# Entry
Amino acid sequence: MSRPGTIPWFARHELRLGWRDWLGMMTAGGRTRARTLAIVLVALVAFMHMVAFSMVARFAAVGLDPDKTTLVVVSGSALLSWSLMLSQAMESVTRAFYTRSDLDLLLSSPIAAARAFAVRIAAIAVSVMSMAALLAAPFINVLAVLGGPRWLLAYIAVMAMAATAVALAALMTTALFQMIGPKRTRLVAQIVAAVIGAGFVIGLQLAAIVSHGTLSRLAILASQPIVDIAPDIGSIVWWPARALLGDVAAIGGVLGAGILLLSISIAMVAPRFADCAIAAGAVPARTRQRRHASRFRSASPNAMLRRKEWTLLRRDPWLVSQTLMQLLYLLPPAFLLWRGFGGEGASQVLLVPVLVMAAGQLAGGLAWLAISGEDAPELVATAPLSAGNILRAKVEAVMGSILMVFAPFIVALALVSPFCALVAGIGIAIAAGSATEIQLCFRSQARRSHFRRRQTSSRVATFAEAFVSIAWAATAALAATGTALAAMPGVVAVGILAGAHLFNPHKA
# Structure
């Protein structure tokens, strides 16, 4: 047992808090849900291994002396994964600044503050490494079974990549504090994390659209122009790719670079971490004095409730990174639409299910915030409105937000194909309404700060929302082609909604 106040004791404390946070996010604190989670995880692991088999089985025979095209594809895929690691690491570091309430305890403990915060950054690194290894496990395991145990060394390469992502995230977040201050950093860091997470994916898709007229990322990575301009096959640039392929020498170099960069980052950031955390904790307490008092605007109670929901959605800094990622992924379809303007290609048909799927997912998140994530339910209940009118005003706020986001896409699509625009508009409205209806069926009181844990409120609602969005997207895609088969996924979607009403815990 380590003595209280020592670095090992703080390390155990941070890892225990990280485990509790993950377990609470997955189970919402219920013991029965822990057993359900175990069953779901087993099924998910089996499913992911099947998906991994279909995606990487053909690469299992790649040896330690790959050609240049293989190195380009592996490096591009690794860079894509690393950008997602960096995005997650930036969000974790930012949350460590703003959402932890143990600052007074740490600063009063019998240990140097720099050491305590060095342990905290290291704990974030361990968390990101574990998540990265967990997500990569199905692919590595399939490759190891089909291609030999050397593929298991890829776990080390993945953890080294995660270490570099955490190091860079800590340096970037601290630099933002120094440049723009704690108040703006809370929002800017979330935007930067979302842009980093989606930027590389979007860049590859845009390049694929320009060169091949498709959204496939592998098409651009394996293209001959990219292979021709890539560095020579013996360049150090390919070390991460070679490490993922099981090259022991490359693994040693990548791991050493990751540990060195993380150590340098901890040494630079840890002494400043306390000041940043103190400044971040002081942000909510400081209010800006306004020169002119705001006046109440005359409006109906319904209009005031809608305005209140839109104001809260606009002010929520953590919601930005959640919704901005979904909106950024609409850029490649929008660019594909622009490229196909005036043509007779199938690009407009491809856009229809993408827009419908995105609308359903975005509406589900916004509906949870408006309906279940109400931080002042008692105050809203005192409004001179019935409960039905209050829910109607919240639903109108959600649907209004969806309209503002997707209206430009519908207008642009109408200029290319009015029929596809009509199908997409109807599909977006139905998908958003279905996701909102599911959230109404399984609403439960929570706080907006628990947005990351909304999936644990009801597993039935989570799966129903995902499947109904997929079903309506498939319906819209088939309807855009003019086939009568569109009725089949539509019937499935209606069945999912009927099942949601059947299991509705509030119907009594």
Summary: The radius of gyration is 25 Å.
